Amino acid sequence: MERKEFRELTSVEDARDLVESIKVQPQITVLPIEEAAGRIIAEDMLSGLDVPAFNRSVKDGYAVRAKDTYQASEPEPIELKVTGSIPAGCEDSFFVDDGEAVEISTGAPIPDGADAVVMVESTKQTGDSLLIYQPVHINENIMRAGTDIMKGERILRKNTRIGSREIGVLASIGMDKVPVKELVVGIISTGSELIRPGEELGTSKIYDANSYAISAGIEECGATPRIYGIVRDDEKLMEEALDRAIAECDIVLTSGSTSAGAGDIMYMIIEEKGETLTHGIAIKPGKPVVIGMINNVPTIGLPGNPTSALSIFNEFVAPIIYNSLGVKPSFKTKVTAIMGTGIRSGGREELFPVGVVRGKVYPADKTSGAITTLSDADGIIEIRAHTEYIEPGSEVEVTMFGNVTSPDLMLVGGQCPGVDLLEEMTGLNFRTLNMGSSAGFTAMSGGVADIACVNMVDADGNYNSSVLKRMNLEDVVLVKGYRREQGLIFSPDTHVYGLEDTINLHIINRNRGSGTRALLDREIGLLAEGKGISKTEMIKSLKGYNSGSKSHRSVCDAVKNGRVDVGFGIKAAAEEAGLEFIPLAEEEFDFVIRKDLLEIEEIQKFLAVLRSEDFSKRLPPGISTYEMTGSIISSF
Ligand SMILES: Nc1nc2c(c(=O)[nH]1)N[C@H]1C(S)=C(S)[C@@H](COP(=O)(O)OP(=O)(O)OC[C@H]3O[C@@H](n4cnc5c(N)ncnc54)[C@H](O)[C@@H]3O)O[C@H]1N2
Ligand code: MOO
After folding, report:
1. Which residues form the MoaB/Mog domain (predicted)?
2. What is the ipTM of this complex?
3. I need a labelling partner for 116 at 20 to 30 A (CA). Which of 47, 215, 320, 483 fits?
């Protein structure tokens, strides 16, 4: 078979039709009630008994004959004789005659002869004499047998998804075993680069995310996942794994190896063993998906990229599972919201991950290769193939993921433990995208962020305001934050006393666009000037200058496990990692905030905490507030 070229793609509509036509017959299995949650009930459930099975009291008080109490009132209580007491669970028989009362607990059986219960609050007992201050009517405070569930009544309909409420009902009718539908969906992850979570990672390997994410998705649909683990990119091993899964499962999913790469051969194996129904759908992400059939077992090759795999699972595999189990897809909340920024698209129909913050939609797309694309998003918008641009301010419909708590504030920019502390102390839910200061400024100008966290120094040593001026950002303010000690981070056995000593050592730099990298550049420039050489020349002698670690923590990790000799970053991170630190500069870490948000409660809280003494005290070593902290600068 030739290597795949995606010249002709199946339209989304045709792919949906195809998926709708695929259905498999699930088995029925009987599970202990403790294990039945999340599954689909296989039969109508009829109650074999009345619930409650006997007339029972719903209050603590006295079982009486209602007519005896009719004359009772506050000023003129009536008197009855107490002849006994019935606790819940009591199996003895009692009888209440005219003029008598029996003490009774909530949940206890109503004695013969009685037809009402007076609450204890309306009575006063002295010895066996009971005064009743309020009348009760017949059946008051009694739950009659069968009024909750009647014997023979259908309590659950076939194909209902079993949740906590259904479990409660099943247990109340005494069921300890529940017949459920059993649809086994196998998942094979292919890729020589994959490692099982929990094992040592090594270089150029990644942890297998798809087996577990997809397995959770299968369970959410009410089917039974079976993880076959990781299979290396080896034709024979892949064939063996697929044969086994096809023999044991009702539906088989593979991940990876669907595309055009040299090692991507799963689609060929599916074609050889069975029939390819489609390979390549005009959708983004997930274009290279394969839908096939082997021995009547639907076999779907999901793309390896985690976000693509999960999106395709939701869009094209979940419907097959639901269809086969006979259930309606679980209800998805759709909300109408306003685009906070524009989104460019075009070409393929797109399932675009978005965040929703206070009714505004912003893109949450980190490409389909990133697993956090979906976990940092609140939902998706569907963008049609012919739509090229969605204008800021336009209305869109967002299909929300289940159980999302929409964040209170959206922060983009530099990463800092001080920001984590602000989140903790405000009690707000931040969505923080640690992408560096430059991304923070860009997000601000695009209207995507509420707050940009920035530490960008210019050639004159000014922080942040010059960038704002250059970008002509007018509808924002600069709120001065705190100072952070930045410097060299290294192991105790490395001898470094200043930036000069790092020449010929192996260093790790931060990502382009981060303020920390800009600061290091400035320090390198100053050092070069002092030595009378060019900055470029100086950079050449720094091994590792071109690296781009994404966070202070990952810089420390690289130093700690000996991959590099020296890193550049904040003291707080060095201390946390137990590494040595020499300060080179003290920088200003600030916040750019949208002007129109200054008065909202969330921002007011943010500012109050930033300016508080308590915040200042709790900051980690190397980060400190100063006289400018919390002051607002509105012209730059
Ligand atoms: N020349 C072309 N290259 C690619 C195309 C194309 O049309 N032409 N399509 C791209 C698209 S779109 C996608 S999606 C991917 C799909 O690739 P495969 O299905 O062949 O998947 P792999 O190459 O094996 O992996 C892709 C990516 O995902 C990582 N991965 C794989 N499995 C897992 C897993 N279980 N857990 C976490 N991450 C996983 C893998 O390491 C790769 O980085 O192809 C593009 N290329
Ligand atoms: O379709 Mo791929 O899934 O764009 O990344």
Report:
1. 186-323
2. 0.95
3. 47
Tell whether ligand 2 has an atom less than 6 A from the beta carbon of residue 280: no
pLDDT in tens, 330-382: 777 889 999 887 888 877 899 998 888 888 888 887 666 677 777 778 889 99
Region for 257 from its dihedrals, namely left if φ exceeds 0, alpha if ψ lies in -120 to 50, beta otherwise:
left
Distance CA 333, CA 310 (A): 19
> For residues 635 and 491, is the Cβ–Cβ distance under 8 A?
no
Burial call 249-264: b when 16+ CB within 10 Å, e when fewer: bbbbbbbbbbbeeebb
Return the pLDDT at 367. Answer: 66
4 lines ligand 1 (CB under 6 A): no
In Å, how far from its chain's centre is CA 355? 12
Low-confidence ranges of the chain (pLDDT < 50): none
Residue 199 pLDDT = 93
CA of 260 to the centre of ligand 1 (A): 9
- Amino acid at residue number 593: I
pTM for the full model? 0.81
Q: Is 19 exposed, middle or buried, given 0-12, 13-18 or 19+ CB atoms closer than 10 A?
A: buried
Q: What is 56-143's CATH number, 3.40.50.1980, 3.40.1030.10, 3.40.720.10, 2.170.190.11?
A: 2.170.190.11
Do 162 and 36 meet the contact criterion of CB atoms below 8 Å apart? yes
CA 28–ligand 2 middle distance (angstroms)? 37
Q: How far is the CA of 369 from the centre of ligand 1 (A)?
A: 8
Instruction: Return the residue matching tokens 């931040």.
Output: 430
- The two structure tokens encoding residue 65: 């004959």
CATH code of the region 334-406: 2.40.340.10
Q: Which fold has domain 27-51+148-182?
A: Molybdopterin biosynthesis moea protein, domain 2 (3.90.105)
